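Hi X.,

You mentioned you wanted examples for the new student's onboarding notes, showing what a folding record looks like when two proteins sit in one file. Here is a clean example. The first protein comes first, with its sequence line followed by its structure tokens.
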Amino acid sequence: MLWFALGLVALILGAELLVRGASRLALSFGISPLVVGLTIVAFGTSAPELAVSVQSAWAGQVDIALGNVVGSNLFNVLFILGISALIVPLVVHRQIIRQEVPIMIGASLLLWAMAANGGISRWEGMILASLIVVYTVFVIRQSRREVAAGKAELDTSEIPEPGTGWQAHWSGQLLMMIAGLVLLVLGANWLVEAAVSFAKYLGVSELIIGLTVVAMGTSLPEVATSIMAALRGERDIAVGNVVGSNIFNILSVIGFSASVAPGDLSVAPAMLAFDLPIMVAVAVACLPVFFTGGLVGRWEGAMFLGLYAAYTFYLFLFATRHAALEGYSLVMGGFVLPLLAATVLVLAWRHWHNGRAGA
């Protein structure tokens, strides 16, 4: 448990140093704050997931590598957006609804399709990794066009100033980046080793540990960013951070993990039958939820949190082979989830119909 805690601390500190060093270095070389905010700062919160999954894949512990990403994506939407919306209703910008959420859905479906044969090969990982490059270039070019047209605005409160003293020089900024990378690698090693030992001690699979404990731990930067953004009234940052991190997790984390793994990333039957479909369903559910007035209300936040609690409880029943597992699955799959889906779709249709009537 000590090494697990030390690993989490090292991951968080490493991500913070890497983001600050890279951001300040970019600003020192004249790269615009907009580009820095859309790339380095946005993707920096997912650095712990990248470090842990790549390390796990390299060591052959593929269940942790995949479980970390799928679990993190579910945690990001259901828990982080849920708790943020309970603090204050979240405004969703049109670009997120029209562009980022469809991209997140597409990436989720692509991952599910690649995993359908029971494994993700190295060349499939390279495809995913290349797509994150394409997406990043696209976002940068789009932002530059909008800036040139005077349409884009960016809250730069999350981007550090160039700094003073040793931090103002490129060598100090480079040193911060190196220190951040070292901490990420060390933290990933400690956390993965502790997670494997933890799973063996509890008698549960590495997949369950990856979907829960590791996923929650590596998502702490997203938790801090989104909750602080909600508290400060920067509600669009809270939503954009989650959606952007989910895109990065699938394309970059899975992509690089599959590219460096000794063999194919094998996908457990349980993940293929349950966890991946749930991840896709949650991604798809964001579209109608976000569409209803461009606002994630408190009741929707409570719904997200309730769904995450129900999912976590299912994992607990599955891990312990509890006698209530079959009955719980029938109730959730046959009644609760269809009812929630119908409610969200009806609300989305009513908003769309009212919008047409008022036009």
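Then the second protein repeats the pattern, sequence line and then tokens:
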Amino acid sequence: MGPEAYYNRYVTRRQKAIAFFVALCVLLVGAAVSLNIGWILITARQATPLVLGIISFALIIAGLIVYTVFLVLEIKRNEEHDSFINAVTHELKTPIASMRLYLETLKSRDVDEARRRQFYEIMLEDADRLHRTVEQVLKAGAVAQKPKVAGRAPVDMAALARECVQLARVRHHLDASAIALQAHDGHPLLVAGDAEELRTVVANLLDNAVKYSGEAVRVTVSVAAPAPNAVWVRVQDRGVGIPRSQLKRIFNRFYRVQTRGLKQITGTGLGLYIVRSIARAHGGRVFAQSEGEGRGATFTLELPRADVKS
């Protein structure tokens, strides 16, 4: 059984478990209501037993509903953890297996200089992928433990976005036209914060945009000040898009977009969670817009603008 078939089977089993517990809750609530009505009819002329019975049945029904909601949430949480473990395992094993294969080839065979250099480049890319995965996991744990930014300094978001765009072009082997940068406003677009963490935010948004763009990567990064006290960094792609029903959930930890055409896209489900956590720690926010599947997506990072002294 392949990974996809196993995952589909797991999701079906989880959905059946959720449906079973919801149906059981409905049946138990119905039975409790029926007993409550019968109790009222029997003790209609006795005030004390009637009141006690109504209160007891109300507590039982409330307990059943709370228990069922808790159980369903726990099932979903376990599914998220399992999905995360599977994704991280894949992200770790794949580059390691690739590097091992090339190293064994170099060890056991005589390889000409051109192919040797090609192998080295591939292994470096695999090492970078491995490093990014570990870095994301560590960063997710760090942002969960550190709700506020310890040290703040002025950060020019236009310059930072330019650095991230150049890095993304190199990392994903893209032409200069694949990622366009637009900087609006004639004044420095400064925010107060941690430059490294803000670089992580913009880099994650760019990586996501490239990853979900498909073969033809067309990404636009805009840096602007829509209001005197705010700075926006907007990343827009023309990729697979996001179903509107999932727009509010994509920033949850471990959550990954469920839509057609994503079977070959890997990831840990932590990137957007890290983006939201860092944005909140800087007193800002991040939000997504999409017209639906196949119509691209736009992510906007909004941060408080730092005071510029003339």
